[in-house]
Amino acid sequence: MVAAVLAGLSLLSLLTCGYLAWGSRRGGAGEAPGNLLGEDPAAGAPRSQPHIIFILADDQGFRDVGYHGSEIRTPTLDKLAAEGVKLENYYVQPMCTPSRSQLITGKYQIHTGLQHSIIRPTQPNCLPLDNVTLPQKLKEVGYSTHMVGKWHLGFYRRECMPTQRGFDSFFGSLLGSGDYYTHFKCDSPGICGYDLYENDNAAWDHDNGIYSTQMYTQKVQQILASHNPRKPIFLYIAYQAVHSPLQAPGRYFEHYRSINNINRRRYAAMLACLDEAINNVTLALRKYGYYENSIIIYSSDNGGQPMAGGSNWPLRGSKGTYWEGGIRAVGFVHSPLLKNKGSVCKELVHITDWFPTLITLAEGQIDEDIQLDGYDVWETISEGRRSPRVDILHNIDPIYTKAKNGSWAAGYGIWNTAIQSAIRVNHWKLLTGNPGYSDWVPPQAFSNAGPNRWHNERVSWSAGKTVWLFNITADPYERVDLSARHPDVVKQLLRRLSQFNKTAVPVRYPPKDPRSNPKLNGGVWGPWFKEDEKKKKSDKSKGANKQKKKNKKKAN
């Protein structure tokens, strides 16, 4: 860790993450070499289909942005949000894979088979191939599609890779986490490998010890510099930050030495570098002629993890839970194309909504046979109209049944409350099963050198409780459980859960495959399942069966 921090003092880190004023025209830290004549590269360009830039942060807590009262400085995010539309009733999923799958398909987890947990590196699993993806739909209407950053939607076979799911190019990692400098990841002792890709091959040539936030930003600048801004582009930037391991270049600690909690201090430095990186992306959009016809969407993929420095205060819970702290996210839209700039949207918006919203903005078509769970919310965001969304299925996980006292009786014979599930309908939110870590973690919990839970607020409930009901509009911090007071509402929401569950597809969560070990694949995490091998095995078994039949006939 110390070596990684010292490495951040290198000249590269100083060059890549330095701030420049947005109006600056001189070359420098935030800009790649470009148009030296000062001409607008997009002059005379058609302005119908907008450039779409979707920036997804990793594990950023709800409080961890300047305009939510954080002590961590995020001037870029604050400025972009203030000049755009802040999404203050915006929901994602509590973990990495679920949020990414719903963004790219517009479907709830129960409709893709990814209801349970995340896709593990050693699992023969990926986003099902029969799901049409957002980049595929955008390519149909002429978009150039590029992904930079974290994939985490499976890679066990080549068909699962980003370049096979609609992206013209891919530069980034396939797994959920890894070292920011070496790009190595160990899933378990002895199961370790390299995880940096360019398209379908390991990017050994790019392994120069550059911090991933900076490296991804450089790649984005290169893509924008080489693309023709007269043609629409979809750029999906899925930064690794601020997910653990907690690593950052040394100079980003300067403003946060007063934070005693080491995890919070490292997290703050990581977020500071991420904020500067997004500033540099914005500079590149301006420099190369994209900005005036662009839509920038910023979102976190889930809530923060307090034990890893993140803060969701004043919301309850954390990453991995269905309390508001796990699923209510930082999000905003920044664009010259917005009608109500500088506003706040308090209408209900969910990560599945980006799929139909962006396809419609791109003048694409949504096939009638694609049953989406998302809604087109552009008029809600841009013009302040009412959201077409009135409910959100946060999830139904039939495998996670750790609530030992859950029962059909507790669910009024409508629902087995041992099952982990959560649903929002209008103002009401219902949770069943075991929703996960439920503390409120205030800012003072980070005041000490180590993790301190003495400052946390906890609520003790009667043993065996498996149903909770909250009015989220009146009680966004989930402090007053209303399930006993409003059994009629509980029953209504349980029936809605049951209706959703009837449309669910089987869960995809296969066991580990020993062939996934990077040692068997040149030391690299990557596709290991080969279709031809499976065919050969089936052909051999068929041949063997035929031979057995022949032998039986001879014996007879």
TrEMBL record:
Residues 1-23 form the signal peptide. Residues 543-556 have a biased composition (Basic residues). Its cofactor is Ca(2+). Residues 505-556 are annotated as: Disordered. InterPro entries: Alkaline_phosphatase_core_sf (IPR017850), ARSB (IPR047115), Sulfatase_CS (IPR024607), Sulfatase_N (IPR000917). Pfam families: Sulfatase (PF00884). Keywords: Calcium, Glycoprotein, Hydrolase, Metal-binding, Signal. One of its GO terms (molecular function) is sulfuric ester hydrolase activity. Residues 50-362 form the Sulfatase N-terminal domain. Residues 529-542 have a biased composition (Basic and acidic residues). Belongs to the sulfatase family. This is ARSJ Arylsulfatase. It comes from Leucopsar rothschildi.
